[in-house]
Amino acid sequence: MNRLNILILIFLLFGCSNQKNDLSINLQHVKGYGPFLNGNVITFPSKDSIYYKGVPKDLDEYVIRSIIEQPRQHFWNLYKAGKMTKERFEQFATYYKLDTTKLTTDLVDSEIIILIGTRHDKKRIVIIDSNNNEDFSDERILEFEYPVSKEKEEEMEKSTPVITADFEYYQGGKITAMNANLQPSPYRGSLGLTYNTDNVVEKKYDLFISFPEHRYGQVKINHSKYDIYVSNRFSGIQYSKQRAAIFVCKSGEKPSEIKGDLPLQIGDIFNTGKQDYSLDKISLWGDTLNLKYVGENTHPEGFIEGLRVPKFISQKLDHSEFSLKDYPDKFILLDFWGTWCNPCIKSIPDIKAIHQDFKDKNLVLVSVAFDTDAKKVAQFVNDQQMDWEHVFVNQKSEDKTNIVEKLRVTSFPTTILIAPDGLILARNKPLAELRKILNEKLK
Question: Residue 5's pLDDT band (boundaries 50, 70, 90)?
Answer without folding.
Answer: low
